[in-house]
Amino acid sequence: MNTATLDNVLADSNLFDAWAKVRGNKGCAGVDGQTLEEFARDLMANLDLLRMEVRSGSYRSLPLLRVYIDK
């Protein structure tokens, strides 16, 4: 990925839009157990950490939380 594209992906406005979508979905805690409220308490630091890890190549996503839906 070129630097300009990565800069666009990691721009404050893009990360805030992504956060707004996640918050708007009223999601539940993931496999790490962190709730939306906990993430929001230190939102700027969490987004900065995400940005730093992606830029450095050290970001690793956690496994998906499997949820079974009855039919």
Low-confidence stretches: none
**CA-to-CA gap between the ends?**
41 Å
What helical percentage do the residues reach?
A: 55-70%
**What does the average pLDDT come to?**
90
Total count of strands: 0
Number of helices: 4
User: Mind summarizing the main beta sheet?
Assistant: none
- The Rg value, from CA coordinates, equals 14 Å
Structure explained in plain terms:
The protein is mainly α and 71 residues long. It contains four helices and no strands. The protein has one domain. It starts with a helix and ends in a 15-residue tail after the last helix. Helix content is 56%, strand content 0%. The protein is globular.
Which secondary structure elements does this structure contain, and how are they paired or packed?
Blueprint: H1 3-9, H2 12-24, H3 36-41, H4 43-56
